[in-house]
Amino acid sequence: ARLHALPESERKRRRRAVGIAPGQPNYRILVVEDKRDSRRLLVKLMRLVGLEVQEAVNGEEAVQINASWHPHLIWMDIDMPVLDGIRATQAIKATGRKVAIVALTASAFAHERESILQAGCDDLLVKPFQNADLFDMIHRHLGVQFIYADQTQPLNVPVTMQELTLDPAHLEQLSTAQLETLRQAAVLLDLESAQEVLVSLPSHAALLTQYLAEALRNYRFDKILALISQWEAMQP
């Protein structure tokens, strides 16, 4: 059988963002979703590529966080208790501060989509959506340049990262198998395998997750190897 290359549009839908290209600002993303599992998944996807994230369980919390934290983009679920996504969007837009709001909705009806946009949302995604759709939407509205798993070389942009530091003791949160996988990934410059370790980290390992995500975002596999060496030197 003859193999055919995937169309460009299909390749883009299947690609996986693994980090933010170096030399860009820190972007703040607010996830507003009342369903815990959906909210936590969105938060994790955003954090794994190096975005700053806060979360809200309803529109009222979203309005408060927007006022104090000033996110660059808000993922706004429409159907929520207390204050729904439509009214929350209207309240946020009424402040006059520039922020991109992307509605998350299960409705594909044209008239409902039109009402969402008329309420002030800048764009919308219809559930269920692909992970790639999220990062394409962020790029569209904020101009963020992402690194994807199929890129073998880093983008040609200057690195302005702050020096990474972390107590090696945080590596005790990894199992022996995870540590070995991470080591091999760092030696082989294997972004995808390193990302798999990140995805498997527990929520309480926030500092370790942030450190590894930042190291991978800047292709600092040397930092990961050095941290592992320091950890092993501490062992009896």
Architecture overview:
It is a single chain. This protein has 236 residues and is of the alpha/beta class. The protein has two domains: 15-148, Response regulator (Rossmann fold, 3-Layer(aba) Sandwich), CATH 3.40.50; 168-234. It contains ten helices and seven strands. The strands form two sheets. A five-stranded parallel beta sheet has the order 3-2-4-5-6, sandwiched between helices. A two-stranded antiparallel ribbon has the order 1-7. Helix 5 links the parallel strand 5 (100-105) and strand 6 (123-126). Helix 3 (59-69) packs parallel to helix 4 (85-94), helix 7 (176-187) packs antiparallel against helix 8 and helix 8 (191-200) packs antiparallel against helix 9. The longest helix is centred in the last third of the chain and has 14 residues, at 221-234. It is elongated, with a radius of gyration of 20 Å. The termini are far apart. 29% of the residues are buried.
